[in-house]
Specification:
By secondary structure, the chain is mainly α. It contains 3 helices and no strands. The chain has helices spanning about 1-10, 30-55, 60-95. α2 runs antiparallel to α3 (about 60-95).
């Protein structure tokens, strides 16, 4: 399936934006919104990885190594991308609203 490869590449592509995401926005509320979206996605990936690590304990060595060398690698890369995007939006907020605290 050609769609699988593109989807996998998109998940770790630092230049990929979510629908509606505009890095050039001039609105502080937009920046806060996207920082929150990416924080939620980061937390979701962390919970998924925690669950996989717990469940993998009961697997045989080969199966566990497969999970650790594939699934967890991709999830970490996705999580790391989300963390970078969240930081981008936090920085963007500070630029758009210097000295203001998030609502």
């Amino acid at each position: 399936m050609p769609g699988k490869k593109k989807a996998a590449q998109d998940q770790v592509d630092d230049s990929r934006l979510l629908p509606g995401e505009d890095p050039k926005t001039g609105h502080p509320d937009d920046a806060l919104h996207w920082a929150q979206v990416y924080r939620e996605l980061t937390e979701f990936k962390n919970r998924a990885m925690d669950r996989i690590v717990i469940d993998a304990v009961g697997l045989g060595d080969v199966a566990r190594q497969e999970i650790e060398s594939t699934d967890l690698v991709v999830l970490r890369a996705e999580r790391d991308r989300f963390q970078r995007r969240a930081e981008f939006w936090r920085d963007r907020y500070r630029t758009l609203a210097p000295g203001q605290k998030p609502k």
